[in-house]
Write a sequence for this structure.
C-alpha cells in the first residue's frame, strides 16, 4: 500500500524549496505502486467523482 513519506526536516526543507522554485505542490510517497490499468468506463467514473467532489484521484493496483 502506498502511503505518505515520513520526512526529516532537511528533506522537508528541500522539497519546500523545490515547490517554491517551481510554483507547484508536491506530495511525497513512501513507496510507489503501479498506477492501475483501467477501462475507459472506469476512467469516466473516476472523472465523474472528481467533478462532483473537486478532488483529484489516482488509482493504484
Amino acid at each position: 500500500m502506498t502511503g505518505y513519506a515520513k520526512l526529516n526536516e532537511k528533506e522537508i526543507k528541500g522539497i519546500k524549496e523545490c515547490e517554491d522554485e517551481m510554483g507547484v505542490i508536491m506530495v511525497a510517497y513512501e513507496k510507489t505502486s503501479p498506477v492501475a490499468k483501467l477501462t475507459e468506463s472506469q476512467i469516466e467514473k473516476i472523472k465523474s467523482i472528481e467533478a462532483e467532489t473537486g478532488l483529484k484521484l489516482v488509482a493504484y493496483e
